[in-house]
């Protein structure tokens, strides 16, 4: 476990800013407790400083996880957000998509969202924008990229793709191996 | 000179009068200025040398004793040749590295690459009656050089091994390519590499311990305040371009 370098922090925040915009400040500032980012085996964790300090007592190869997993750095140096961080993203998300109950299941199996399945969508959503997907009872199901802007959606046919699935909570079951040591 | 000691040889001067507590910074600076004045004045009193450059003067021998900055280097153990030379009373003569080559009409190194005696690019060799029929004198030259290099390398290795105090394993190959420090370390590893981890080794060996290089946590974790600052900096950087 180690701190993130300035370069790594920048990459992480750039990615998160695509979801929550200027609210990335809230992740660091707006809380009674101080939070920090830690890197362990290529994965970035978001943890309270108390937890992070306690975790220093555990040897590197023994430490499975701490706090909550934000995502991981790929070999190419890019940063991928994991589904584990969806609760924080949902709380601060700028652009949201709500699904109809009948298309919920399809999304949770890893499929993209068609127009027929969209109940509601944040206005002025641009194209290729990171969006967080909810069901009707405001439970975050995952996130993805908007394939069309909210204006284009109105003209789209019911089988057109609206949101491209990047991660959904169904992957907790589908890719169980992937989440070992990921804060579960 | 009024409480100022000037050593022109080492171009230094010192105000030897005691310093009182109530002296201000200005007064101290005044002292410095005064002693430097003495130094410069002293320089100009030296006899001028008659040369093309006008203000050339020869400094006298310095008399102030200055302590050594670094510790005196440890004596290295003598190499095999140095030991032999000491017994025989052979002294090192200083020889030129280059010599005049008559045939090529230029200066050439006495030893090594492109040296005068380098036979490698000789076209004609004098006849040697001791040669057997079919044996090439050119190959013999090459062979001789190869052997000399090999034996020299062996000697170098031996000297290096005596530099590191410990007995080395016999399979320490190409010791000349490794530093004596790393050799010493491998010698230590070997000395405790047995079933009891060196516990029952006799004598000096048993006391040897490898200095462990444990990674400290302090290096990988920076203080919270610094980290928070760094995080805010990164957030602001991202928001600037947003």
Note the main attributes of this structure:
heterodimer, A: 184 residues, alpha+beta, Nuclear Transport Factor 2, Chain: A, Archaeosine Trna-guanine Transglycosylase, Chain: A, domain 4, 2 domains, 6-stranded mixed beta sheet, 5-stranded antiparallel beta sheet, 7 helices, elongated, B: 242 residues, mainly alpha, two-stranded antiparallel sheet, 39% helix, nucleus (chain B), Ribosom_reg (chain B)
Explain how this protein is built.
Chain B: It is found in: Nucleus. Chain B: InterPro entries: Ribosom_reg. Chain B: Involved in ribosomal large subunit assembly. The complex is a heterodimer of chains A (184) and B (242). With 184 residues, chain A is of the alpha+beta class. Chain A folds into 2 domains: 80 residues, Nuclear Transport Factor 2, Chain: A (Roll), CATH 3.10.450; 82 residues, Archaeosine Trna-guanine Transglycosylase, Chain: A, domain 4. Chain A is built from 7 helices and 11 strands. In chain A, strands 7-11-10-9-6-8 form a 6-stranded mixed β-sheet. In chain A, a hairpin with a 5-residue loop joins strand 4 and strand 5. The relative contact order of chain A is 0.15. The mean pLDDT of chain A is 87. In chain B, the strands form 2 sheets. Chain B has a two-stranded antiparallel sheet with strand order 1-2. Chain B has 242 residues and is mainly α. Chain B has a domain of 65 residues. The model of chain B has no long low-confidence stretch (mean pLDDT 81). In chain B, a hairpin with a 4-residue loop joins strand 1 and strand 2. At the A-B interface, strand 1, helix 1 and helix 2 of A face helix 7 of B.
Silhouette of chain A = elongated
Which topology of the largest domain in chain A does CATH recognise?
Archaeosine Trna-guanine Transglycosylase, Chain: A, domain 4
The quaternary state of the protein chains shown equals heterodimer
Structural class of chain A: alpha+beta
Q: Helix count of chain B?
A: 7
Can you tell me the number of structural domains of chain A?
2
Question: What does the main sheet of chain A amount to?
Answer: 6 strands, mixed
Largest sheet of chain B: 2 strands, antiparallel
Instruction: Note the gap between the termini of chain B.
Output: 72 Å
Indicate the mean pLDDT of chain B.
81
Radius of gyration of chain B: 33 Å
Order of strands, main sheet of chain B, comes to 1-2
Q: Please give the alpha-carbon distance between the first and last residues of chain A.
A: 18 Å
User: What name goes with the CATH superfamily of the largest domain in chain A?
Assistant: PUA domain
Specify the structural class of chain B: mainly alpha
């Amino acid at each position: 476990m180690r701190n993130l370098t300035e370069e790594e922090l920048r990459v992480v925040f750039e990615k998160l800013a695509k979801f929550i915009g200027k609210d990335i400040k809230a992740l660091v500032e707006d809380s009674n407790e101080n939070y920090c980012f830690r890197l362990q085996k290529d994965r970035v964790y978001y943890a309270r400083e108390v937890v992070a300090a306690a975790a220093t007592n555990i040897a590197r190869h023994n430490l499975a996880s701490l706090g909550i997993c934000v995502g991981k750095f790929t070999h190419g140096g890019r940063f991928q957000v994991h589904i584990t961080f969806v609760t924080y993203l949902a709380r601060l998300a700028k652009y949201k998509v709500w699904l109809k109950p009948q298309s919920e299941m399809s999304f949770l199996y890893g499929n993209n969202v068609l127009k027929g399945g969209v109940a509601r969508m944040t206005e002025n959503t641009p194209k290729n924008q990171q969006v967080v997907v909810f069901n009707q009872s405001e439970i975050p199901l995952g996130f993805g990229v908007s394939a069309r802007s909210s204006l284009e959606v109105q003209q789209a046919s019911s089988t057109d793709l609206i949101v491209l699935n990047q991660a959904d909570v169904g992957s907790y079951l589908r890719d169980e191996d992937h989440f070992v040591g990921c804060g579960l | 000179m009024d409480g100022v000691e000037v050593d022109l040889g080492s171009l230094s001067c010192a105000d030897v009068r005691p310093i009182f507590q109530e002296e201000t910074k200005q007064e101290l600076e005044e002292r410095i200025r005064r002693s430097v004045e003495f130094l410069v004045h002293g320089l100009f009193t030296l006899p001028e040398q008659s040369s093309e450059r006008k203000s050339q003067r020869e400094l006298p021998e310095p008399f102030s004793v200055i302590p050594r900055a670094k510790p005196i280097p440890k004596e290295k153990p003598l190499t095999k040749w140095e030991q032999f030379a000491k017994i025989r009373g052979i002294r090192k003569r200083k020889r030129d590295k280059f010599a005049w080559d008559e045939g090529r009409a230029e200066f050439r190194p006495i030893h090594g690459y492109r040296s005068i005696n380098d036979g490698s690019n000789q076209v004609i060799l004098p006849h040697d009656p001791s040669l057997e029929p079919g044996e090439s004198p050119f190959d013999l030259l090459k062979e001789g050089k190869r052997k000399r290099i090999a034996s020299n390398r062996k000697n170098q290795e031996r000297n290096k091994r005596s530099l590191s105090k410990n007995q080395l394993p016999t399979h320490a190959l190409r010791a000349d390519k490794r530093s004596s420090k790393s050799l010493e370390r491998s010698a230590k590893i070997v000395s405790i590499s047995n079933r009891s981890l060196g516990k029952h080794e006799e004598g000096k060996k048993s006391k040897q311990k490898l200095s462990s290089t444990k990674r400290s946590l302090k290096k990988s974790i920076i203080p919270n305040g610094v980290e928070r600052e760094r995080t805010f900096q990164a957030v602001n950087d991202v928001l600037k371009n947003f």
